[in-house]
Amino acid sequence: MGSTHVNARVQKHRDALRRAGLRPVQIWVPDTRQPDFAAECRRQCLLVAQADAADTTLQQFMDAALADVDGWAA
Hints:
By secondary structure, the protein is mainly α. The chain has helices at about 1-20, 35-55, 60-65.
């Protein structure tokens, strides 16, 4: 009886969200608990750093983009 009450409450909440124009989505993300997660992060960071170092115009582009954010926040 208790689980039926919870299920009904969850369904009511989901129905309200749908009426508000929202829809459920499932998002799969990397499992940070995996033993090789930190090593994979390091590997990908090194690849990005190498790519950044090879692109001489990237820093200029980022500086220009940063200069263009004035007034974005109130």
